Each structure stands twice: as structure tokens, then as C-alpha cells.
TrEMBL record:
InterPro entries: Sialidase_sf (IPR036278). It comes from Lentzea aerocolonigenes. Gene3D superfamilies: 2.120.10.10. CDD domains: Sialidase_non-viral (cd15482). This is Sialidase domain-containing protein. Transmembrane segments: none annotated. It comes from the Bacteria. The keyword Signal applies. The keyword Signal applies. Keywords: Signal. Residues 1-27 form the signal peptide.
């Protein structure tokens, strides 16, 4: 779940910049492995919790918003997670997780974590959302989620667990932040990052909407305040997930930082990418931008948000009938080359047009300066692209996946959608030929996310998809796709010699 979009395409217009699309001299394709179905029937469909007056039924046997992580100590082991049984107005009955011990060739379901009432958790949490998994340098596995009472941004919490290898199950989750929604205080869009340079360290971050001083001024002052902010929150573990620090804002500034995600550089520097949706209580050309903050001391102190590029918004629609699509657009994905230290951020942007396309920005000096944004989806200027994911291999190969609608046929009643993969061996100065990864599938079969009955936010398979280096130049793509009556999670291994 993320906060309701409050913006229209009114931000700054930036020039269209294209990285070279010519392949490198040593062009070679991925060897694309089998398309493995990861998810199966839900065990939660009979759960009586989580319904609302507006929506009494969830989408049964429907998994959305997947993430994946690979164990650096044993790359044959990987863990994936997703929402389970999505509700039309936000959140899910539970979060499911799976483990592979053979490099993604097959997967088995892990026992459920008691996140929500449907999974044996506190009855005050009728739903849960935003799954994310990760490993640290030592191979400790972490799983984070956001328990909620409903989709109204009322009661919301941040809860995290780690894998107990003696039992092969997740430990009881620890709630590290909980708010009841009073004075519009809520939590949203959580992610977690294991540190590849420090054993036992992992970092949780999310957005916490609040007034300064947690809204302790009068309600009248709240209603007339222009100081409402979305703080980038931070908590860390240094003992493999046994304990977590008291959450604190990365910065006490009047900004609204959505989609926070941390990546770690080879020197241990932390980079937090987030969409800054307003600054100083105003929406203007200078205050709406993709941002990155840095920390040189494992998250104890953070820089001010550095502007990567202005953000412009283009609403996603099915071309056939303009039915909205809710997908990863301005929410970023970030990756770091652990050899060169280059930092890459991808997101969806209109670049001053009505068409959302996947763009990339790059920094080679620790986040001080950025190139781009450059369009890196190749479907053509009139083709929507979204649901981007990026990662960098051990050798510095950059891999990018995304969806687009280039093969859609207007008026045939099918929202034809395909998934594509690109890779670069020279820091994205040029790209190898694009390859088809999955599809076509019909996006019309996806669950619909609603503001309220009769008011759809859009077709929803997730605000993000999973992509993770296995070892060398091998990569695992972990994503959702539609079926006749919902959505399933798939995994595809990509090998490159």
C-alpha cells in the first residue's frame, strides 16, 4: 500500500535524453531458464478477518507485489515473498514466502509468519501489505511487512522477522513502529536491506506521514498547517535481527519522501532513494524530484536529499479503454556496482509527455552528481513501460527488467502486456539487445485496486517486482503474472557467460 496519488502531471518538464541503444561489441544474449511457477493455492481463503463495509471479499488465490533475495554465502539458496489474497481497497490477508535450495529451479513454501489475524497474528491487524526480503553479508535472512487494520491508513505498523536456521522457520515478528492513525499519522511503503559489507547488519526504511512534533499542536492548527511531511524512517539491526534500534527520521525536514529503498556501496556507504513528492508544503518544479540521501556511518546520520532529477507524472492506462493501471511508476529501484561503486536508480517518468516510460539515472561519484534521466525501455515513444527492476552482478553487468504494452491490439478486449530484460556490460553506456522474458498476459485479469466502490485506482499486480544477482552474471527475476482468475508468482533464472 502507498499513499493516494495527490499529484497531476504538473511538475517540471525535462529534455528527453537517450543512452546509446547500440549493443556493445561483445553482444551476447541471456540464456533464459524455465519459467517456474512459485505460488500455489492459498490457505487463507476462509479467513473471516479483514473485510470492510465497502469490500467484503478479497481476491482469493491471488499473489501480488513480489520480492526476492539471494544468500551471498550460498547462492543456491534464495527466498521470495509476496502479498497473499489481495483486498480490492488495499493490503492482503497475509504475506507468503518461499525458499529455493537449487538456484531457483524449484520452490517450497515457508511456514507463515503471524503478521495478520488471518495468519495467527494480533486480531487488531486485519490485513498486511508491502513484503520485502533480504540477506546480509553473513547469510542472515530478513523478512519485513506492514500490518494494518484496514486500507484507511488508520492503525499501521512496521514488523520484521529473521530466519531461524535451526528450525528453518521465521522467528516471531517484532513490531518496531505502530501508529493508530490519530492526527493523520500513518506508516507506508516499507523495505529492508541486508548489508553486504557488514555481517549482522540490516536496515529497515519506510515513509511515516505526520505533522512536526507528531501533530501535538491543536487540531485547528493541523488543518491549516502546510508542514505535513512524509518522513523517511530508519531502524537497523546489528545482531542479525535479534534486536532493532528505535526508529528515527533520517531527516527532520518538511518533505514527503515516498518509496524509500536503501542500497549499500562497496565502501559501506548507504544510499536511500525516494521520490520527493513535495517540499515545504508546496508542489512545484523545484520540490518534486527523485532524491538520494547518503550515510557514511551505517545509518546513524544522513545527508540532505540530493536531487537526482525532476519528476513528471504520466498516468498509466490500458490503451483500449483508458482503464487505469496502478503499478510501479515514480517509486524507484536502486542498485550499486560493488566493484566500481556506480549507483543506478530507475523509475517511471513522463518526461513532460503523457506516456510513462522507464528511465535511469547514474552516479559515479558517490551520489554527488547524476547523469540522465535516460529512457531505457525500448518499446518506442508511444509505448508505456513500468514495473521496473534493476540489479548489478558481481562483474558489473547491469540488468534491467520492465513491462510494456507494445504488443497490445486496440479493441480486442485484451490488455496485452509483456515483460522484457536488458543488460549492459559497460555501466549503461550501451546495452545488449533486448530480450523477451515473459508473456504476453492479459492485464485485465489482474485484481483491481479501488479508492472506493466504483472508483478504481487501477489494475494491480504490484508497485515493484523482484530482481537479484545470484552469482557471477546469473540473475533471478521474480514477478507476478495473471491467470484466468487472479495472479501467480513466477521465477525465471537468467544466465550469461
Amino acid at each position: 500500500m502507498r499513499a493516494t496519488r495527490r499529484l497531476t502531471a504538473a511538475a517540471a518538464v525535462v529534455p528527453l535524453i537517450l543512452f546509446s541503444l547500440a549493443p556493445a561489441a561483445s553482444a551476447a544474449p541471456f540464456s533464459v531458464g524455465a519459467d517456474v511457477l512459485v505460488s500455489g493455492p492459498s490457505a487463507l481463503t476462509s479467513c473471516p478477518f479483514g473485510g470492510s463495509a465497502a469490500f467484503a471479499a478479497a481476491y482469493d488465490d491471488t499473489e501480488v507485489e513480489p520480492q526476492v533475495a539471494v544468500n551471498p554465502v550460498n547462492p543456491a539458496e534464495m527466498i521470495g515473498a509476496s502479498q497473499q489474497d489481495r483486498w480490492p481497497d488495499g493490503g492482503a490477508r497475509g504475506l507468503s514466502s518461499w525458499i529455493s535450495h537449487n538456484g531457483g529451479a524449484s520452490w517450497s513454501k515457508l511456514p507463515d509468519v503471524p503478521w495478520s489475524a488471518c495468519q495467527g497474528g494480533p486480531t487488531r491487524f486485519g490485513r498486511v501489505t508491502d513484503p520485502w526480503v533480504t540477506y546480509d553479508k553473513a547469510g542472515n535472512a530478513y523478512f519485513i511487512g506492514q500490518p494494518i487494520d484496514s486500507a484507511e491508513l488508520g492503525l499501521s505498523a512496521i514488523s520484521v522477522t529473521s530466519l531461524d536456521r535451526s528450525t528453518g522457520t521465521w522467528r516471531p515478528p517484532q513490531i518496531i513502529q505502530e501508529d493508530n492513525g490519530d492526527r493523520f499519522v500513518f506508516n507506508d511503503k516499507v523495505s529492508i536491506t541486508g548489508d553486504p559489507t557488514r555481517a549482522g547488519y540490516a536496515y529497515a526504511t519506510w515513509l511515516r506521514g505526520a505533522y512536526p512534533n507528531n501533530g501535538k499542536q491543536s487540531p485547528t492548527a493541523d488543518l491549516h498547517s502546510f508542514a505535513y511531511r512524509g518522513q523517511a524512517m530508519f531502524s537497523r539491526t546489528t545482531d542479525g535481527g535479534l534486536t532493532w534500534s528505535t526508529p528515527v527520521p533520517m531527516r527532520n525536514s518538511n518533505t514527503y519522501l515516498q518509496g524509500n529503498q536503501i542500497a549499500v556501496g562497496p565502501d559501506g556507504t548507504l544510499y536511500d532513494a525516494a521520490a520527493n513528492l513535495f517540499t515545504g508544503g508546496t508542489v512545484n518544479d523545484n520540490g518534486v524530484y527523485m532524491s538520494v540521501m547518503t550515510s557514511r556511518d551505517a545509518g546513524l546520520h544522513w545527508s540532505a536529499p540530493a536531487k537526482v532529477a525532476p519528476l513528471t507524472f504520466a498516468q498509466l492506462f490500458v490503451p483500449d479503454d483508458n482503464f487505469p493501471i496502478r503499478a510501479g511508476d515514480y517509486i524507484p529501484d536502486i542498485a550499486v556496482d560493488m566493484t566500481s561503486g556506480a549507483v543506478y536508480v530507475v523509475w517511471g517518468d513522463g518526461l513532460g509527455t503523457a506516456v510513462n516510460r522507464v528511465v535511469l539515472a547514474r552516479s559515479t561519484d558517490g551520489g554527488r552528481h547524476w547523469s540522465g534521466p535516460a529512457v531505457v525501455a525500448t518499446g518506442g515513444p508511444g509505448v508505456q513501460s513500468y514495473n521496473h527492476a534493476i540489479d548489478v552482478s558481481d562483474t558489473g553487468m547491469v540488468t534491467l527488467t520492465y513491462w510494456d504494452d507494445r504488443n497490445n491490439v486496440l479493441g480486442d478486449g485484451v490488455a496485452t502486456t509483456d515483460m522484457w530484460v536488458r543488460h549492459s556490460h559497460n555501466g549503461t553506456l550501451s546495452w545488449e539487445p533486448e530480450q523477451h522474458l515473459h508473456g504476453p498476459f492479459d492485464l485485465y485479469r489482474a485484481p483491481v485496486s479501488y479508492f472506493a466502490p466504483g472508483d478504481p485506482r487501477g489494475l494491480f499486480l504490484g508497485d515493484y517486482m523482484g530482481l537479484e544477482t545470484i552469482s557471477g552474471n546469473a540473475t533471478i527475476a521474480f514477478f507476478t503474472s495473471t491467470i484466468a482468475d487472479g495472479a501467480d508468482v513466477h521465477a525465471v533464472r537468467l544466465n550469461h557467460t
